[in-house]
Amino acid sequence: PALDKLKNKKIIFVVGGPGSGKGTQCERIVQRYGYTHLSTGDLLRAAVQSKTERGEQLNALMTEGKLVPMEVVLDLLKENMIKNADKSKGFLIDGYPREIAQAKKFEELIAPCDIVLYINANDATMTKRLLHRAQTSGRVDDNEETIKKRLKTFHKETIPVLDLYEKKNKLEEIDSELEPDAVFSQVRDILDKLA
Ligand code: B4P
Questions:
Q1: Position in ligand 1 atom list of the atom nearest CA 180
Q2: Distance 165 CA to ligand 1 centre (A)
Q3: Given the CA of residue 42, which atom of ligand 1 is nearest to it?
Q4: What is the ipTM of this complex?
Q5: What does the alpha-carbon distance between residue 94 and residue 24 come to, in Å, rounded to a whole number?
Q6: What top-level branch of life does the organism fall under (predicted)?
Q7: What secondary structure does DSSP assign to 89-131, as a single string?
Q8: I want to staple 126 with a disulfide (CB 3.0 to 4.6 A). Which of 19, 54, 102, 111 is the partner?
Q9: What is the 19 CA–ligand 1 centroid distance (Å)?
């Protein structure tokens, strides 16, 4: 019944490689369209702060550039979606799904998404951006070795998700090689049609 509240809300998945610009675009989307932004990376980093055994395990996986267990991410998403349902017109789910199983499970438990924004930048660009961010981010995964592993995980686990939504005609590809405002102008063209 708590999940009933989520009916008729827009659900936008934002998918892209590490450092592709997902978080950057989501900030702009929230400002313009007011969707509720849920970044799985941010939710997981907050969970790590709790200093529990669970948090330690999550931190170890993220440091290895691996995906954390699907159930953990889904619980965090579900909890935060229900919490925000009454005041929200829709959800921007940033960093999810990262593997086929996540896509299927979300649709089964919550609802199908309306569209998937694929924030696409090449590996060299993503690496450069993350190494730049590393100078100030303090993130355990912003270092050369982990970045390589995150890219590998992206190609192996997440690219198939993009293929899945392409087949469902829900995939919208955004060229994220450009500067942030130019990237956002493509995002706007798509979200204006969705409103
Ligand atoms: P995330 O937090 O999602 O990390 P990310 O992929 O690096 O994206 P982020 O949003 O931070 O960076 P952005 O591209 O915006 O995930 C971290 C880890 O959490 C994963 O490796 C995994 O272990 C775990 N995890 C998360 N979700 C999970 C899930 N669903 N299942 C299992 N595990 C999960 O930006 C990067 C940098 O580029 C910034 O410094 C930005 O300023 C810059 N930038 C952005 N756009 C730019 C542009 N157009 N031009 C120039 N610079 C730009």
A1: 49
A2: 20
A3: 2
A4: 0.87
A5: 10
A6: Eukaryota
A7: SEEEEET---SHHHHHHHHHHT---SEEEEEE--HHHHHHHHH
A8: 19
A9: 5
